[in-house]
Amino acid sequence: MASGSTIVFFPEGAFGPTNNCVGIGDVLRKRGHRVVFIVEESFAGTLEEKGFEERLMRLTPPPEEEEVPGQFWKDFIRDTAPVFREPTIEQLGSFIAPTFQALIDGAKYVDDRLQEIFDELRPDIVVEDNVVAFPALLTSEIPWVRIASCNPAEIKDHLVPPPFSGLPTADDREWDGFWAAYSSTLGDIHADFDEWCQERGTPPLPRYDFIHESPWLNLYIYPEEIDYARARPLGPHWHNLQASVRTTDSAWDVPEAMRESNDPLIYLSMGSLGSADVPLMRKLISELADQPYRVIVSKCPQAKELDLAPNMAGAEFLPQTSILPKIDLVITHGGNNTVTESLYFGKPMIVLPIFWDQHDNAQRIEETGFGVRLDTYGHEPEEMLSAIEGLLGDAELGGRLRALSNHLRAARGTERAAERIEEIARERY
Asked: What 3-state class would DSSP assign to 415?
């Protein structure tokens, strides 16, 4: 029976997928299950602090110096930042391909260690949130769940723009060119990884995909109000949670120095990885300084490099899901967690995409009317201020956002995910 099952979560080594899994894992833990997280050694202790068990692994050889959580990706983003100014079709070669290669190298390095962990824990089910396959999981005979927590353009369809493109849904004139560049740039990497996976005992990888669908359960997270129309409905093993918002963040209140002001309260978060681009963060801080707004800044990994203006407060780490209910507007990189969480709490967004699916999320927010997409590096300060005033003054948008928030709260995303996972565990007995 599912009661008291051992459920293993295996998220990608970044805060976004990890936080998403924490929300679901917390529900399952409260239902009496043993919940264990497989995490990179640099994350050691971060899940234990939230009351979960951990099993540690590495995606690369040990460094000479001690790491901090997610340090590999922080360094990677910092060193790669110049390519974020390129068009998305050029980022395929300068960012997307190297990123996939790094992820694939990690999958190859860690596969034997994963098998050791599965043999030790003997879990009833594994829940993974990754974008590349891990043969140790597919060949383990353990039921597994795939969470696709990026923009659902990664679930390919003829009516959906190419992933990572940021192209509009209503104009497909550039789609074929992007797909051709995608295939040309990633084809050899895909073929090499597919060959290795099959040598390790997996089925062939789908075309264009670096990960398999689960034959048991696949979950994605995207409000239907901004989701894509599809030529073919997703199969019976796919379920949209609409939103998946954790309740494990610590409490937060508006800083005392800001409480006497009635100025709009803005939350600026470019994500744990996007904030590693210090020049960009300094540009945004400068644009919002000395304006009639109170600004809460998520400073993230390069916190020591960022000086805030008098109308601002912030820290390296902030409890985002506790902040969002109390602010008026979000300025974001467009990561899937921040987008869905902002809509869950009914907040308009200005989206400044940097890489990966952020371009796709920015385009969907713009074309569905729930916010504004700006040129991340090329916008003028006046464009930022005009977008803020336009969104804050749009009463009709406020009503739409309240209705959407009510819908997403009623969807019970984390609870529904837990229920589906329990169903798979029950089917084993």
From this structure: helix
Cβ atoms of 89 and 161 closer than 8 Å: no
At residue 333's C-alpha, the angle toward residues 172 and 296, to 5°, is: 150
Instruction: Give the residue among 17, 65, 63, 62 at the shortest CA–CA distance from 38.
Output: 17
Average pLDDT over residues 297-314: 84
* Closest CA relative to residue 37, chosen from 133, 45, 246: 45
Distance in angstroms between the alpha carbons of the first and the last residue of the chain: 6
Eight-class DSSP state of 40: E
Task: Measure the CA–CA gap between 41 and 61, rounded to whole angstroms.
Answer: 11
The rounded distance, in Å, linking the Cα atoms of 407 and 402 is 9
And the tokens for 124?
């009833």
Q: What pLDDT digit, counting tens, does each position of 401-417 carry?
A: 999 999 999 999 999 99
Residues 6+ apart with CB under 8 A from 190: 205, 208, 210
What amino acid occupies position 145?
V
Q: What is the pLDDT of residues 251-263, one digit of tens each?
A: 999 999 999 999 9
Please enumerate in sequence order all residues whose Cβ is within 8 A of that of 401, keeping only pairs 6 or more positions apart, or say none: 343, 346, 347, 348, 370
Taking the CA atoms of residue 414, residue 420, residue 425 and residue 427 in that order, the dihedral angle to the nearest 10 degrees is 170
Q: What is the pLDDT of residues 161-220, one digit of tens each?
A: 999 999 999 999 999 999 999 999 999 999 999 999 999 999 999 999 999 999 999 999
Residue among 192, 214, 237 at smallest CA distance from 100: 192
Q: What is d(CA 148, CA 131) in angstroms, rounded to the nearest whole number?
A: 8
Answer positive or negative: Cα dihedral of 193, 198, 204, 210. negative
